[in-house]
């Protein structure tokens, strides 16, 4: 008999914590933190409230676990971004496509993250990161610096800037779909509009990178800082003739 069975009389051995997180994520995304009740999560998942408290501590603990799961599902695995391309423009195009395609396939997870950003139930600004995004942005940074060194991309743009553009379009689809339908009669869920948004984000990112806007001397739009000794991508990522 496992510990779940020992604590709860052996009636819930088939229900795992991950099953509960699946249900909780869906209900938190649909109803919000306040209106998603533990009773409903327990009923739908098949795990008692007692066992939910055992595994997650309380409702907030389950909510934080759901947010963490949403991030891991909604953002691509860094390995998916290890794209073979020696041409910066084509490499960025492939990477934008990979990030966008992955994110829009997880609307439920994006909805939950939008709700948290609006209502701040988990107080994430004062919490540890839900996930480590450094490896994800590293792949994009490599392409950006190679493109800047080659003169294909303008300077002063970071991976965080580009990632913000991509994710903004993805979050927009789930957060303002009803407003777009009401004001502009655009159904964001129609296949042709999903395809159009795909083209829009691709063209926006590439136009942003290749435009002739004068350099400001800053390294990023979102984290402005002036580097006294700017490094080239070759200096950072190449050693002994090998790409790191």
From TrEMBL:
Record-given protein name: TetR family transcriptional regulator
A biological-process GO annotation: regulation of DNA-templated transcription
Domain HTH tetR-type: 14-74
Pfam families according to UniProt: TetR_C_29 (PF17938), TetR_N (PF00440)
GO molecular function: DNA binding
DNA-binding region: 37-56
Keywords of this entry: DNA-binding
